[in-house]
Specification:
This protein is of the alpha/beta class. The chain contains eleven helices and 30 strands. The strands form seven sheets. Strands 20-21-22-29-24-27 form a six-stranded antiparallel β-sheet, with no helix packed on it. Strands 6-9-7-8-12 form a five-stranded mixed beta barrel. Strands 14-16-18-19 form a four-stranded mixed β-sheet, with helices on one face. Strand 18 and strand 19 form a beta hairpin. The longest helix has 16 residues. The chain is globular, with a radius of gyration of 24 Å.
Length: 467
Amino acid sequence: MTIIPVILSGGAGSRLWPLSRTAYPKQLLPLRGRETLLQETARRAIEVTGSRGLILVCGQEHRFQVAEQMHGIGIENAAILLEPLGRNTAPAIALAAHEALSRDRDAVILVLPSDHTIRKISALTEAVRNALPAAGQGALITFGVRPHSPMTGYGYIKAKQSGLSPIAAFVEKPDLETAKKYLASGNYYWNSGMFLFRAGTYLSELKRHAPDIERCSAEAWRGVRKDLDFKRIPQDIFAGCPSNSIDYAVMEKTDKAMVIPLDAGWSDLGSWGSLWDVADKDARNNVALGDVVLKEVGNSYVRAEHRLVSVIGIEDCVVVETADAVLVASRKGAEQVGAMATELLQGKRSEANLHRKVYRPWGSYETLDAGAGFKVQRLNIKPHASLSMQLHNHRAEHWVVLRGRAKVTCDGREYYLTANQSTFIAKGLIHRLENAGSEEIELVEVQTGDYLGDDDIVRFEDKYGRE
């Protein structure tokens, strides 16, 4: 029986601000090692299922990062479905189910969130193997994580019996005393958000219990179009799809729902506290990452991304430093980081959405300095990549090449620049910058003008399909 792995890569991961941000969320970050959570999940999915034919569902704003991260670990044939806007997990899984059925009418899909960690992959593999016969016969199976503590941050699943079992109830996040009772009972599990079922069965149950979602998802799938390495879902159709989770839309209503216990060192890495839980600690129970110096500190998580961070005389704290923002919170107070990130976003603070270094399909740019009427950025352009043919109505640009060979098109003229050479692009001129070689280009861009927002771009031609 064919198992097709499906990875859901939506969400902003706001509870891990300032490291995770809307434009570059936690699944795209290397939070635990050299590889990102998305890359770890992709490798895990392949190992568990034996299939490299991944299906990934992500927001269109993250499409190039997702594709590049898959290429970075040698996965070249993944189907990347682009949601034009988020509609929660029920519609996202429906789109993936249609993709799976286009390959195999009897396909079973293993649905994995992209931002979890599992230390014992062999335990997940065994659970999938044990659940597969029931999934093949029409069960909708979720993986219930055996709780090792009375966690109040997870939803719970109550099983009717031990082992692979029908589900008695889905339970919302409990208070501490209730969570202790769940732990003692032995028949409650943490809700992992991972699933195994036939793609066709899921769509049938979705049609039965959430017909509006099934109908809209099917219509959107019929309108899908290929765009470079991606499959675009039409926004005009998908915008009308109700937003709902698979739990609320299907699993809590169907009579086919089952749970299989999983003891695999699982964590959803949803907060700074969960990152502290899974990380290696020093003799005083601290997690210290980056250039960190601690003195009389205990039970804390301290992370430095860009500079020295010194912490003295505190207990049970979270300190996270990035290039443009610093978080300091008690470990208990860190549970409110998501709400604070939402407030920053509502206040239109750029730090809620963007890092100082911003990734684009052609490479990246990093703002080094800014003030009234000027901005200084460092651009890194990948080999054979190019910016769009564009003009700016409000700013001029001065480019200084630090390394590499750049091809410049400006006002109908083409010329080349190498290290220590520069050029000036006047306001209103149509221009483009290309990497003409096999070495990455690094250059400094000085912008001057009365408005320096990133939306001052009129594109005439773009190889990446951006408007």
